[in-house]
């Protein structure tokens, strides 16, 4: 698996560095792509974390914009000439540990030249570079992925998509449920008389003969049945 370190300068194409990180993370896995703004945990010793991840990387992608070369530090000195500059330190560590360094020239940045680089970084001028134009960033990122795949033994296959599990209707035994839309009430397996509307409830017992009672609702609508003979008795 290809392990990539994204090197960039604060104030120069930071957004592009983030896009590079996202694309490479999607292809090679988030844990295999290091970008300081994303990968250093809160409270961690960032110096140790940065150096360790440079050393363990297979490739360092140096994001170089048009402000990269001439950017100055707080004292007004060109940042690349400052031994404490982290962009410079990461590049030097990568070169000294035989990590492949690929300059990524963004949005028309000039090709690196040895006569304008610090002596310690002059080797960058001899490294094959790649150009990236954010007006067609999808094409540029795809080309970067392909080149990294060549250097790292191929591009991993994307994870297989899991088929969607079809939903099946759920059967309920007993109870009352409402179905939205037209007002419908479903009653299954009632244990006794059920009234789901506003009218009278009709309950008819299964006994017949004299004295049989019919109940038509809960509003005193009850009636007894007698034969003529019984009613005529004194």
TrEMBL record:
One of its GO terms (biological process) is signal transduction. Residues 4-144 form the TIR domain. Pfam families: TIR_2 (PF13676). This is TIR domain-containing protein. Residues 150-215 are annotated as: Disordered. It comes from Saccharothrix espanaensis (strain ATCC 51144 / DSM 44229 / JCM 9112 / NBRC 15066 / NRRL 15764).
């Amino acid at each position: 698996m290809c392990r990539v370190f994204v090197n960039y300068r604060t104030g120069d194409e930071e957004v592009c560095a983030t896009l590079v990180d996202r694309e490479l993370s999607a292809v090679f896995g988030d844990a295999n792509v290091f970008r300081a703004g994303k990968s250093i945990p809160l409270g961690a010793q960032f110096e140790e974390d940065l150096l360790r991840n440079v050393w363990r990387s297979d490739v360092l992608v140096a994001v170089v914009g048009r402000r990269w070369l001439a950017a100055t530090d707080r004292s007004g000195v060109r940042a690349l000439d400052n031994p404490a500059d982290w962009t410079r330190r990461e590049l030097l560590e990568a070169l000294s540990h035989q990590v492949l360094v690929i300059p990524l020239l963004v949005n028309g940045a000039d090709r690196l030249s040895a006569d304008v680089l610090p002596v310690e970084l002059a080797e960058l001028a001899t490294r094959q570079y790649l150009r990236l134009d954010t007006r067609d960033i999808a094409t540029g990122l795809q080309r970067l992925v392909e080149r990294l795949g060549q250097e790292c033994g191929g591009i991993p296959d994307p994870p297989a998509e899991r088929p969607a599990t079809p939903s099946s209707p759920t059967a309920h035994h007993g109870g009352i449920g409402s179905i939205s839309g037209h007002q419908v009430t479903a009653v299954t397996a009632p244990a006794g008389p059920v009234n789901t509307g506003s009218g009278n409830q009709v309950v008819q017992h299964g006994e017949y003969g004299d004295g049989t009672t019919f109940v038509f609702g809960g509003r005193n609508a009850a009636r007894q049945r007698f034969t003529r003979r019984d009613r005529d008795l004194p």
